[in-house]
Every structure is written in structure tokens, then in C-alpha cells.
Amino acid sequence: MEHQQRSQGNLSPSSDTEAIVLSLVPRLAHFAGVARTEHVTRAAHEMRVPQSTLSRALVRLEQDLGVDLFARHGRTVSLTPAGRAFLGSVERALAEIGRAVEEVRADADPATGKVAFGFLHTMGAETVPGLLQAFRADHPRVRFSLVQTYGEAMLERLRAGELDLCLTSPVPDAPDLVARRLDEQKLYLVVPADHRLAVRRRVRLAEAAEETFVTLEAGYGLRRITDAACLEAGFKPRVAFEGEEAETLRGLVAAGLGVALLPPPVFPRPGVVELAVTAPRAVREIALTWLDGHPDTPPVTAFKNFLLSRKGNLLTQ
To answer: Looking at residue 82, what DSSP letter applies?
Structure first.
């Protein structure tokens, strides 16, 4: 038997879907409670709401939908075919909301919550594992979602709410971000082992002005630092190869395909020599960055304070 269609609904079929959902959501739990008990008075008692409030909510829900969900039989009610169809979807929606509530509460738990943490590729082999090990000595059950990528991508994910904190370089300067400089890392001119400069321990960057460079791609913080350092040394680097990872660049240098300005390796790489740069000052600053005004959960606050306490002693090298 087809359900009765109300002739005077508040929302027409052409109404905006988002507006309909926003109108319905507060009354879905009331509907499910009455549908479960098939008795308005009993449902009101179980949900601890006034019966008049519950009755008005059901009437308004039916008006908004333009459909009869219940057949009234004195103090009891029964679901119409439309009501039974609607109930299945409502129960699934409420269960999903319940799971979402449990998840966000678990992520915010001071002892077992989760931190979404981003960091540079070059910090993933040793620095970040060491930091996490030290932090979990006092917070052994805090969970982490780790994102290893380049600086601009991290800032985008920070703004999108996908990250709580990130370690990036250079220090970002944007009104919507908070950045705290924690440490700096020396950069070295990496040359092939048989290069004319390989017998040296230190060089001025200007001495590499005629060399071919291998660098990270545009958008990477280290690429911007390389370009700026070369410009300060009086030249624009001639770039032959661009990559996404520092150790790949070292491999290209070892193959004799160019020179590179890079942070120190975790492990010595055969076939290359790392030269200290005396001029200009070649370093990259590492900053802890977060979204300004974004509220922190207790585990995020704890990890943020831990990282800030490592100022000047962040890096393993």
C-alpha cells in the first residue's frame, strides 16, 4: 500500500539538499526512539524529553519530509511503509555518527589520542624516529599519523586540517600560520669523488658557479634555499636534473651528473665528497609550524610542547 503524501510540506522536492539535512538532523534520534517503542509516552520517558517536545518534533519531521511516517492509534503509533523505509537509513546514519563521536573522542584522549605529524623527507630516516622514541618514553600510548613530504605540500595539508603539526624548512611566513624556529642544519656542497674540488674540505659556493647542479624540484624548500644561496654567491645554478629525494640526488652526483647543495647524509655515500661551504652561510632553518587559532587536543599539545623543548637540540646531526 502506498504511503500517504502530505499536500502541504515545508520543503519541496527542489529544495536544497543541505538545507533539508540540516533541518532533519536534530529530529532523527527522536524519530528512531519512537519507532523503536511504537509509543510516544514510553519513548519520551526513555529519552528523558517532554512528551510534548517529542510529539512536536515528529510532526515537524513529517512536515519537512512531506510524508506520513507514523499511523496514530490513540497513545500508540506504528510505522507506515515510508516510515519503515526511512528508519533503516536513519539507524545507519545514527550508528555512523556514533562511531564518528567515538573516534574523535579517542583521538583527543590525553593518553591514547592521535597526532597527525608531517616532516621533511630528509628527516625521516633518523631524526623523526628519534624524536618519537623520546616522546613516547613519557607518552607510550599516543598514536601518530605520519606524513613525509615536502614543505609546500605539508602547509597545504596543515591548512586543510589533515595535519596538526609539521617540521618544515624554510621557516614559513604566512598570517594564518604559527612557526617557531627550532634548529638549523648545515648544507654541504656534494661533488663526485673524482671532481676537481674533491681534494678540498671547504669551498666558497662561488667556486661552483660553472658547475651543473642536480636539485630538488621547484616547490621544495631546499630548492628555494639552493637557488637563494647561489644567487647570493653571484650566480644562477645551471640545473640538469631535478628530483624528489636527497639521496637520489647524491646518487646522481656519484654518477658524475652534477653537484648538489644538501644536508648531511644519515650514512656516508660512496662516490661523493661532502664539502663545507664557507660563503655564503649555507644552512636551512627547521621550524615547527601549526595553523593559527586551531584548537589542539591534549596529545597534540603534549607533542607540541615536547618539540618546542628541543629547540637547538632537535636534529640528530
So the answer is: H
Whether the model pTM is above 0.85: no
What is the tens place of the pLDDT at every residue in 237-251? 999 999 989 999 999
Residues 120-132: pLDDT tens digits?
988 988 899 999 9
Matching residue, cell 653537484: 259
Burial of 70 (0-12, 13-18, 19+ CB in 10 A): buried
Decide the pairing of beta strands 114-119 and 260-262.
Answer: unpaired
What 3-state class would DSSP assign to 148?
strand
Would strands 177-186 and 76-79 be described as parallel, antiparallel, or unpaired?
unpaired
Please compute, for residue 54, the number of CA atoms within 13 A of its CA located in the half-sphere on the CB side: 21
What span, in angstroms and rounded, lies between the C-alpha atoms of 242 and 60? Answer: 62
Assigned C-alpha cell, 173? 611566513
Number of CB atoms found within 10 A of residue 195's CB: 19
CA dist 205 → 156, 217, 293 (Å): 32, 20, 41
